[in-house]
Backbone:
């Protein structure tokens, strides 16, 4: 009897009937409904509706996913053994593996099909190629690496179209830890549902999905991580599934959706997925999970079970198949567990599974003949792919921008500016709830600035003060590239979330780069202001505070990549530009610290009214420094008569311009150095975008 689950509070009799002779699914729903009545929860209770007797007309199933002769091999690199007794002999190939010419076959001539509204489970022992088969069907393999064909309604699936009409749930729960369940699903709705859909309708879709997945009690709970308590493992798994079915995909691939869960959580995950598959309003789904609960698979829904050796049966046919094969299933034993154990036993036998495979081919051919006689159109779709998608859209399928035509389905659901707004809001929300991350950065900047300010406290304008200022600027500009460089660590934390979301075109990679750059600006502004205020006045700097603040901000902005130590040696502080060998001069110009360092020097020493060395101060740092002051004045008089100009103890002999010439800081103005530093930041972000574009395909 076909059953669907709908939300209808006006069907108490159906619920009562379900509770009289309940299945496990009905028991769980009855307990949930009673709890809602006791607590006063106004969420509509669940009821079991019999489609065959409710007057709801079931429609023909338009989608048929078929795959034939899928073969996939990987290259095996042989290890070089050590001589003598350290040398290990290569292991012999195990049953089902082919080790020839340095390759290992993972998939060998796999064929099968999945019909619309059907759950197809890929089951087998660990390492049998289940995830590889799922990846092959979902086009997550490198182009040309998989031989064979995957078709939908008899037509080859293009990669662009597959990304729009399908979703893939990975084994790992890749979620932002500080977003609530509702926020996580709402952001997914913003990404995957078209902008033409109103905000209220998106919220309704999210609320319906929360009820469907049994997440109502965890709606306002954060996802959590190792340091923050959040939802349970089963709820986290259901949220992961929810964000990928929010846009109502035609094809849904799930890789081990119940791994690591207890039996109750695994049952709820499977039941929620099956409900979305069989629900008459959203029935255009082909779900492809792996390793669901065996008892739930056999007892709850119709599905196909393809094994590594291309054995595919509906669960209802398992007893008849194995009985005909000469290994009847005992009444008290689980069907799928019996099948798994038998196949594992045959694989370890001398003849392997050859007899089972040959028997399966003849048995399947006989069954297909019977089905064609009884129902000639049962196993084929009489609609082309374009017609099937158009029909789905006409029934309310949430495919953006299609307007009833598959040729108008866009690559991305929303425009770039909308993606940017949603990504920025999500990043702000997640970061705002983890203030400790910003606190660590602020503490690092404050402590670094405090140390520099106290070490270089109130520098004077003597020759020693000049050298001390140069040392301060070199250290200050170098540390800005180390105290606040967290752009790459943040991306590494979000990397797999990014790869999951962009694998099926939830948003553009350019939107991600731009949003993260903009989101980081408020923090950079505050950190730059803190560092500038802590060091500028205590050190006794003379230039413009505003420019000093701007160059520090530009340095923080350009710190996506830290400067290389060899490049730091070529900034101009350790060795002047005119003293660098010609074959290393290019390193001077690619040093990130060069431009902020020269900018602050010019900001400090460009005022023509300020003098840094007067009269007898010119002897400081020379052997004449220990000479009495009176003798120094006589030396000045002798120099005056020799040079023809009067030099007294108050005569300015070294200005800021002289210092800049000594340091060979003359090729760019301070504003040019500022813009070059800003340009470095843009260049690194562009290179970051290219790396995402090329290196984040998320394919084998």
Residues:
């Amino acid at each position: 009897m076909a059953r669907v689950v709908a939300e209808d509070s006006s069907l108490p009799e159906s619920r009562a009937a379900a509770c009289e002779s309940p299945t496990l699914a009905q028991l769980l729903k009855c307990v949930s409904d009673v709890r809602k009545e006791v607590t006063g929860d106004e969420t509509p209770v669940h009821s079991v509706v019999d489609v065959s007797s409710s007057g709801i007309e079931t429609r023909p199933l338009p989608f048929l996913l078929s795959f034939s002769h899928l073969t996939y091999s990987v290259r095996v690199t042989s290890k070089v053994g050590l001589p003598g007794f350290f040398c290990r002999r290569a292991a012999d190939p195990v049953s089902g593996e082919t080790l020839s010419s340095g390759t290992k076959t993972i998939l060998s001539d796999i064929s099968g099909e999945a019909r619309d509204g059907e759950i197809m489970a890929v089951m087998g022992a660990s390492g049998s190629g289940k995830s590889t088969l799922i990846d092959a069907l979902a086009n997550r393999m490198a182009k040309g690496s998989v031989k064979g064909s995957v078709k939908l309604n008899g037509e080859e699936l293009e990669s662009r179209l597959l990304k729009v009409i399908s979703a893939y749930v990975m084994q790992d729960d890749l979620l932002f830890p500080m977003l609530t369940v509702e926020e996580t699903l709402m952001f997914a709705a913003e990404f995957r549902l078209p902008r033409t859909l109103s905000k209220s309708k998106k919220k309704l879709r999210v609320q319906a999905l929360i009820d469907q997945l049994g997440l109502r009690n965890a709606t306002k709970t954060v996802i959590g991580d190792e340091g923050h308590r959040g939802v349970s493992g089963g709820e986290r798994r259901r949220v992961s599934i929810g964000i990928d079915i929010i846009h109502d995909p035609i094809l849904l691939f799930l890789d081990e959706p119940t791994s690591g869960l207890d039996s109750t959580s695994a049952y709820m995950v499977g039941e929620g997925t099956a409900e979305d598959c069989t629900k008459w309003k959203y029935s255009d789904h082909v779900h492809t999970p792996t390793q669901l609960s065996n008892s739930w698979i056999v007892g709850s829904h119709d599905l196909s079970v393809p094994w590594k050796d291309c054995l595919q049966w509906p669960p209802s046919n398992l007893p008849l198949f194995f009985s005909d094969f000469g290994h009847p299933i005992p009444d008290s034993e689980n069907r799928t567990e019996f099948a798994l154990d038998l196949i594992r036993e045959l694989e370890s036998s001398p003849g392997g599974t050859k007899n089972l495979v040959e028997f399966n081919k003849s048995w399947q051919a006989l069954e297909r003949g019977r089905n064609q006689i009884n129902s000639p159109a049962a196993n084929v779709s009489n609609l082309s792919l374009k017609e099937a998608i158009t029909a789905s859209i006409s029934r309310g399928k949430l495919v953006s921008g299609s307007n009833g035509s598959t040729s108008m389905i866009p690559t991305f659901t929303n425009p770039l500016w909308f993606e940017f707004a949603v990504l920025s809001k999500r990043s702000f929300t997640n970061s705002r709830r983890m203030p400790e991350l910003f606190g660590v950065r602020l503490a690092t900047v404050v402590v670094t600035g405090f140390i520099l300010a106290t070490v270089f406290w109130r520098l004077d304008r003597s020759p020693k003060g000049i050298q001390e200022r140069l040392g301060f600027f070199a250290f200050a500009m170098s540390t800005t590239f180390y105290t606040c460089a967290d752009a790459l660590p943040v991306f590494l934390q979000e990397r797999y979330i990014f790869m999951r979301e962009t694998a099926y075109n939830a948003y553009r990679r350019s939107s991600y780069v731009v949003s993260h750059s903009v989101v980081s600006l408020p923090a950079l502004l505050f950190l730059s202001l803190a560092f500038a205020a802590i060091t500028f006045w205590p050190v006794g700097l003379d230039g413009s505070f505003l420019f000093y603040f701007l160059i520090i901000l530009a340095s923080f902005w350009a710190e996506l990549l830290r400067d290389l130590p060899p490049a730091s040696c070529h900034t101009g502080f350790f060795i002047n530009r005119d003293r660098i060998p010609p074959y290393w001069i290019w390193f001077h110009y690619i040093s990130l610290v060069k431009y902020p360092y020269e900018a602050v020097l010019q900001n400090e020493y460009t005022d023509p009214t300020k003098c840094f060395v007067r009269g007898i101060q010119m002897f400081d740092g020379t052997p004449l420094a220990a000479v009495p002051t009176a003798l120094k004045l006589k030396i000045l008089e002798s120099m005056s008569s020799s040079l023809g100009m009067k030099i007294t103890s108050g005569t300015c002999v070294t200005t800021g311009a002289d210092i800049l010439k000594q340091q060979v800081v003359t090729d760019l103005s301070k504003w040019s150095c500022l813009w070059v530093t800003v340009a470095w930041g843009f260049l690194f972000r562009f290179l970051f975008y290219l790396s995402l574009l090329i290196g984040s395909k998320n394919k084998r």
